[in-house]
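Mods, move this if it's the wrong board.
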Amino acid sequence: MAKRSSAVRTNHARDPNPGAERAAAGEIRYVPIDRLSTSYARLRRSALPVPVELLAELPLRVAALEGTDRFEVLDGIKRLRRWIEEGRSVVPVLIEGSKTSVEHKRVLLAANAPPRTVTALDQAEVLASLVEDDGLSVARAARVLGKKTTWANNRLAIRARGSKQLKALVAHGAIGPTLALAFTALEPDQQDRVLACIEHYALPQT
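Not the wrong board. Structure tokens:
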């Protein structure tokens, strides 16, 4: 008899085990929306539109919050918002094995990288959280994300020195990280004046 793969376990019963303490990595289950936490939503600054067909009905990727009956959403925050708008009370989730906030943030960026729904501003927010909230050095945070320290410093510079208007354009994908970094050599008010000229004369921004 062929061995049954245990890579992904499915549990399609409606919340038979609501607690997160016995959640197994790779398990798919249905969970009430009120047991989902979205504390990492603040790290997703991207305003790029995502086609509904890309979101499909894929389970949300979540991590169990130990000692509670709750799960932290790592991927699928926009999908969750859509489901809430549709009036759903129970949604499918895929449980990840990551346990620390550092691992959570690495998964958050990696999960959103393939369809290009992550911008330099999302990356900067995750980096800043790893440094400020998790106590990592910039170099260590970069390694966690599989990047070089220079890459990390450039993203953090955009976050720290970019004007509100510049960062909004980055979040919408209108300006790429290279040009955004160049803008940070200017004071915020100077950045906005240059951006106003670009808009007025319809100059290419990327």
